[in-house]
């Protein structure tokens, strides 16, 4: 008994040390982001106090990133894309589950099979088409996210809806509800757990996505955080004190979100991977 | 009958339209463009037959090198990520308060975008490694990312750091589904901890290994953001992976037709990996 107690403590110490190792890159970035350029050059491992302490990095990085603006750009694009994906993917998935014919089987297969297609193999023609349709702007970007998010979201909804008994909606149909009412009043509320999963998976992907916005958005007033970060870094890559402060600012929203929605995030990511 | 067709369209058509115009139509157009001399987003492509593919096979050594580099990277990082992920899962499966905190820590890097993480690690490798290396006299820590091999290992370390927490979560879910009674019974029968791991835990976690292996394999194969931010393919394009090679062929050299031919080859490779995964997981499910 005593033996297993010692073993448990040894394991705890070992895993805590590993956790510290895991966090050390972020710790180094955080401490150095408060130093002057000279301070970073002289010693990376020291704490940011004394003559090299320079919190102004943050003021400068914050304004260079136009952080308020890029934050709200990211937020607008992420939220509107996710909401549209939720609405249309759940509707389509329900119809595909409840309609038993060759067309619906084929469409579901098409959505599932397209998961195999990497982004790079469609991006060039996509930009050409969207350019011709005058959709190389935030509206077009949201539309593209709806298309790219459709497969995984429909698959997840499809799997969940299969297990909902049909009797419920049949009763409502007899009571005179049309399909639209049946879906939004009866079915959609039942989908809440999977809706949380689908929202989190899509929101995390869209929030962090870099390449698609880079190809689609050319007006700097619409730059999202990753996009702004890319140009900011290109400009300041020799000025690490500013670059690091910028990186910390860019990571803060995700860390806060993780802090509050951790359970849902972990659950969502697990479910998303197993499908 | 007419009514149900109407509702089918109302429910399915909006997302289907987006999906077709963003994924399916561009994919077929892309296959067509790979046989053309397309040289700028707005320009008209002319049919050139299979000459892009011939160029890739015969003269474009950069693409072949990218392919080999990507395959090597994928192989090493898949092993690293899954070993670390499984190790972490074994360490923190229990539901103590400390374990909950540790799990959150290990999983966190996964949420931050690849581009930002690439920049973070660029600082760690080039500045922090240099500084630590010179102050404690470890010369192998100096000059990271300036050679092909340190670029390679830099990418592997970055990806292991980012993805092993994700694999850990998948393996924890699998470990928790093993009935406690099974392990107890083996313990009473006198099986050592290692024997229990080898004969009970690992076989029962095997389906999760299939998921984990292929998830990391296809992610490593498609890597772009981290590659762009950490090494940008350098030095001298020697750490350029497939996705970045395609991107640069199109946007640096404006050879869209050639880039598209590469993208078709990329599509075939990625699809082959994923189909193998589906084949193996289905086969295993049948056996279970």
Q: Which pair has the most extensive contact?
A: A-B, 86 and 85 residues
Which value, in Å, is the CA radius of gyration of chain B?
A: 24 Å
* CATH homologous superfamily label of chain B: MetI-like
Task: Give the name of the CATH architecture of chain B.
Answer: Orthogonal Bundle
Which descriptor suits the 3D outline of chain A?
globular
Beta-strand percent range of chain A: under 5%
Q: Which class best fits the helix and strand makeup of chain B?
A: mainly alpha
Low-confidence stretches of chain A: none
Question: In CATH's first tier, which class of the largest domain in chain A applies?
Answer: Mainly Alpha
Question: Which residue ranges of chain B are poorly predicted, with pLDDT under 50 across at least 5 consecutive positions?
Answer: none
Helix content of chain A: over 70%
Count of alpha and pi helical runs of chain A: 13
DSSP summary, beta strand count of chain A:
0
Rg of chain A (C-alpha, Å):
24 Å
- Helix and strand run of chain B: HHHHHHHHHHH
Mean pLDDT of chain A: 91
Keyword list:
heterodimer, A: 275 residues, mainly alpha, MetI-like fold, 2 domains, globular, B: 288 residues, 77% helix
């Amino acid at each position: 008994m005593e033996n297993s107690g010692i073993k448990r403590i040894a394991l705890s110490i070992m895993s805590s040390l590993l956790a510290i190792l895991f966090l050390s890159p972020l710790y180094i970035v955080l401490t150095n982001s408060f130093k002057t350029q000279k301070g970073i050059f002289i010693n990376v491992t020291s704490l940011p106090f004394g003559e090299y302490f320079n919190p102004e990095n943050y003021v400068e990085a914050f304004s260079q990133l136009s952080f308020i603006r890029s934050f709200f750009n990211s937020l607008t694009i992420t939220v509107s894309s996710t909401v549209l994906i939720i609405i249309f993917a759940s509707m389509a998935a329900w119809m595909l589950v409840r309609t038993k014919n060759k067309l619906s089987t084929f469409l579901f297969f098409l959505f599932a099979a397209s998961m195999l297609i990497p982004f790079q193999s469609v991006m060039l023609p996509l930009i050409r088409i969207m350019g011709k349709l005058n959709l190389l702007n935030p509206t077009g970007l949201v539309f593209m996210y709806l298309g790219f998010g459709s497969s995984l979201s429909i698959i997840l909804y499809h799997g969940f809806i299969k297990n909902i008994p049909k009797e419920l909606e049949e009763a409502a149909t007899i009571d005179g509800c049309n399909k639209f009412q049946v879906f939004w009043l009866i079915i959609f509320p039942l989908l809440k757990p999977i809706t949380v999963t689908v929202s989190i998976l899509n929101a995390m992907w869209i929030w962090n996505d870099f390449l698609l916005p880079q190809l689609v958005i050319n007006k700097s007033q619409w730059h999202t955080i990753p996009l702004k970060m890319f140009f900011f870094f290109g400009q300041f890559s020799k000025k690490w004190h500013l670059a690091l402060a910028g990186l910390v600012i860019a990571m803060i929203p995700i860390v806060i979100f993780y802090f509050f929605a951790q359970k849902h995030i972990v659950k969502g990511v697990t479910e998303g991977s197993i499908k | 009958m007419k009514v149900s067709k109407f509702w089918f369209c109302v429910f399915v058509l909006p997302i289907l339209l987006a999906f077709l115009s963003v994924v399916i139509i561009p994919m077929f157009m892309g296959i067509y463009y790979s046989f053309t001399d397309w040289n700028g987003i707005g320009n008209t492509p002319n049919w050139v037959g299979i000459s892009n593919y011939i160029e890739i096979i015969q003269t474009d050594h950069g693409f072949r090198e990218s392919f080999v580099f990507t395959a090597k990277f994928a192989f090493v990082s898949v092993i690293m990520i899954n070993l670390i992920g499984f190790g972490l899962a074994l360490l923190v499966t229990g539901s103590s308060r400390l374990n909950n905190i540790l799990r959150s820590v290990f999983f966190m890097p996964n949420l931050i975008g690849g581009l930002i993480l690439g920049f973070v690690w660029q600082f760690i490798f080039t500045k922090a490694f240099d500084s630590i290396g010179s102050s404690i006299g470890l010369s192998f820590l100096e000059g990271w990312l300036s050679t092909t091999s340190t670029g390679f290992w830099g990418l592997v370390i970055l990806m292991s750091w980012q993805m092993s927490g994700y694999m850990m979560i998948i393996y924890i879910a699998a470990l928790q589904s093993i009935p406690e009674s099974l392990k107890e019974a083996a313990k009473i029968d006198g099986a050592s901890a290692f024997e229990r791991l080898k004969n009970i835990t690992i076989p029962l976690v095997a389906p999760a290994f299939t998921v984990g292996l292929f998830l990391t394999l296809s992610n490593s194969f498609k890597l772009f953001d981290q590659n762009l931010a950490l090494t940008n393919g350098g030095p001298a394009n020697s750490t350029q992976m497939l996705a970045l090679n395609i991107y640069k062929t199109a946007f640096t050299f404006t050879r869209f037709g050639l880039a598209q031919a590469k993208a078709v080859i990329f599509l075939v490779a990625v699809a082959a990996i994923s189909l193998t995964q589906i084949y193996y997981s289905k086969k295993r499910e049948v056996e279970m």
